[in-house]
Amino acid sequence: MESEMRKLVKGNLSIFASLLYCYLISSKFPKGKFRLVSLLPVITFFTQFPFIFSYLFPRAITSLFISWLANFKLVLFAFDQPPLSSSDYNSLLHFISVVILPIKINKIKNYPSPQKPKPLHLIFPAKVLIFTILVTAHDHSKDHLHQILLLLLYCVMVYLLVDIVFGVCNALVYAILRMELESPSDDPYFSTSLQDFWGRRWNLMVTNLLRYTVHKPVKSRSEKGLGEWAPLPAILATFSVSGLMHELLFYHITRANPTWEVTCFFVLNGLCLVVEMVVKRRLSRRGWQLHWMLSGPLTVGFVVVTAMWLFFPPLIRTGAIDGAIGECKMMFNYLKWMTKL
Predict the structure, then answer these.
(1) pTM of the entire structure?
(2) Over the stretch 268-280, which tens digit does the pLDDT of each residue have?
(3) CA separation for the pair 65, 85 (Å, rounded)
């Protein structure tokens, strides 16, 4: 653990030096290909960065935060696009926070909104408690639960873990910079369509980045030839890129050759989302609409079933899930020991 902490400190210093270079030097290049070329050494370094760690969990976090999200933000920075356009940051600390953390600053001027806010002070501890219970009970559950129920348990754990990690980052940035941040997700279990799930409810930070880096450019190029159908190839491109980036994430985690199952998971969901949009558009012209009490369970059920089929098997075969849960238990024990000091 101590050696891993030393690697973390050295890694953070390297990231800080890289972002200092981006802030002071690359920002002076005109936006476009010249600034992008100046950022390529940093992007290359960030892609390889997770391999410095021995433990699985730090590799997973740095792969998502640094190799994927930070690199995508730097590409947008090269073209002066949000969230790192010249008007989006006003200091080095602000710049670094936006690059390395999965946050999205709320730019609504009349924040807080007139809608009643969710009691986050109750929801977040509840998620932490449930996740802790599931991790603690995993070894016993693994031997007694049916495989399908165990996979459902993994789905719940992934949802909770993503929300907890992103929520901690939001709280950290709010404490330091006092900026209002958008929620990492919006109750994805209430989704009424694949478009609702992937576009407006699940993992909104990743969704927002993919929208700017893939969806909007592809849609813009497709509009001349396809007109109102231009979003369809943009959606397929977005899900394909997401699949490839998840393959990179899984490669950092497992250090095993890609099986392309996770790419198939996202491409399949992208294809079904396209079909869903076409069907909904035609049905809406006839005044037909599927009731949310039916469309909701169908949507969540489809995502869960395809995840059990294609998303989790590579992690199970390589022992990555067991390793991650074991490291979570190690972290819990370490925190208990720290609280007793």
Answers:
(1) 0.89
(2) 999 999 999 888 8
(3) 19
